From TrEMBL:
Residues 95-298 form the AAA+ ATPase domain. GTP binds at residues 103-110, 185-189, 245-248. This is Signal recognition particle 54 kDa protein. The keyword Cytoplasm applies. Belongs to the GTP-binding SRP family. SRP54 subfamily. It comes from Fervidicoccus fontis. Residues 96-293 form the SRP54-type proteins GTP-binding domain. Its main location: cytoplasm.
Length: 450
């Protein structure tokens, strides 16, 4: 996929030509590679125009070369093109939650429906599948067998030919079974001359069931037609997100990028194989790394970010020590920690405190997945709750409301509160110790040298 970008980066870094000339040569090569990889021409030129503008206008910080800074720009713009740095929250925001899968025939919708069912079932949700594809022979039996394999409820009716009616009755059935996530597998069409029939059918189903989210399923090898096709789907029924299938093969993948640009929707999942468990949330950073041949530019990015982050780390440490801790500050710190490291590393920037931190910093370590969940929880709080997290402990109904809004369990909200209280307690201890150190002249410097 996107073969040649890795070599283009190597050539750019080793070039002895003037910087501006090297930038233009790299951009021309990048354009050629992306268009050859089926990225829409309009998307390619808008993307490379942003890179050129930043490359010629931005000044790198002291200690960072212009060429290293340029690689950082390419990396960041690619992540932006793929939907941005933040990963989508793949858990539903409400229950029940109705998902409608759309796409052309052969994109892998039926298998994807089963994969989604497997993914959510394994996270504790009651899932129901609806076979609304009346066009493809065997679609009903395939989804039924996959539902049995995954172990979720299935509904379909071979005697009905109206996909909208099937979807409506299927929804009623699954709601009666207390399903929390309901996934509708819709029909596709072969070729690209029958989009109007497909889109009319999609509109009828959407009108009948009012889905909470419409997901466009795209084959990674779809090619140049992806941009126009995704745009037509989006105009008919707004696409909430995208799932890219068959990303494990030799597909060029450019069509998927074009679809993102055409709809403004973000990729939610990627299919990495044929088995029902071979699905994973889409991570823009990882995909960008794969495109660029990350192994060869990791050292460059590490060099750039380490130079940039020293001052940011010190500023963060100061804000932790001097500010009144609340969820707004926790939110800000989590966002920065995602790129700069665990809070223990940040607190060690404060003179004299490295020896005061607990030996076992396990309680300070939080996984990226958990951080994303916590950010979502904080986003579900009111302004007052962010300012005064103690309100949540006094009024338990607030925790229940926040959990529902964030699509998480109440225990997850309490876990965030426990982390907040732990950090608050730790900061109080550290402030006292720092105050004591200041009473003994030179103690700060002594501990720093240690």
């Amino acid at each position: 996929m996107f073969s040649g970008i890795k070599e283009a980066i190597k050539k750019f870094l080793s070039s002895t030509s003037p910087y501006e000339q090297s930038v233009e040569e790299f951009i021309r090569e990048l354009q050629r590679i992306l268009i050859k990889s089926d990225v829409n021409v309009k998307v390619v030129f808008e993307f490379t125009s942003k890179i050129r503008k930043r490359a010629l206008e931005e000044k790198p910080p002291q200690g960072v070369s212009r060429r290293d800074w340029f690689i950082k720009i390419v990396y960041e713009e690619l992540i932006s093109l793929l939907g941005g740095e933040e990963e989508l929250n793949v858990l539903p925001k409400k229950k029940p939650y109705v998902i409608m899968l759309v796409g052309v025939q052969g994109s892998g919708k039926t298998t994807t429906a089963a994969k989604l069912a497997w993914y959510y079932k394994n996270r504790g949700y009651r899932v129901g599948l609806i076979a609304a594809d009346t066009f493809r022979a065997g679609a009903y039996e395939q989804l039924k067998q996959l539902a049995e394999k995954v172990g979720v409820e299935f509904w379909g009716d071979k005697g009905l030919n109206d996909p909208a009616e099937i979807s409506r009755k299927g929804l009623e059935y699954h709601l009666s079974k207390k399903a929390e996530i309901i996934i509708i597998d819709t029909a596709g069409r072969h070729g690209y001359g029958e989009e109007s029939k497909l889109i009319d059918e999609m509109k009828a189903i959407a009108d009948a069931v009012k889905p909470d989210e419409v997901i466009l399923v795209l084959d990674a090898s779809i090619g140049q037609k992806a941009y126009d096709l995704a745009k037509k789907f989006h105009e008919a029924t707004p696409i909430g997100s995208i799932i890219i299938t068959k990303l494990d093969g030799t597909a060029k993948g450019g069509g998927a990028i074009s679809a993102i640009a055409a709809t403004g929707a973000k990729v939610k999942f990627v299919g990495t194989g044929e088995k029902v468990d071979e699905i994973e949330p889409f991570r823009p950073k990882n995909f960008a790394s794969r495109i660029l041949g990350m192994g060869d530019i990791e050292a460059i990015l590490e060099r750039v970010y380490s130079t940039m982050s020293q001052n940011e780390l010190e500023e963060m440490a100061d804000s932790l020590m001097s500010g009144n801790l609340n969820m707004k500050l926790i939110y800000k710190q989590i966002k920065q920690i995602r790129s700069m490291g665990p809070i223990g590393k940040i607190l060690r920037m404060i003179p004299g405190l490295s020896m005061s931190l607990p030996e076992d910093e396990g309680a300070l370590k939080v996984s990226e997945e958990k951080m994303d969940m916590w950010l979502n929880i904080i986003n579900s709080m009111t302004y007052e709750e962010m300012e005064k997290p103690e309100l949540l402990e006094r009024e338990k109904s607030r925790i229940r409301r926040i959990a529902i809004g964030a699509g998480v369990a109440q225990e997850d909200v309490r876990e965030l509160l426990n982390y907040y209280n732990y950090i608050k307690k730790l900061l109080k201890q550290l402030k006292r110790r720092k105050s004591l150190l200041k009473k003994f002249g030179g103690a700060d410097e002594f501990l720093e040298e240690e």
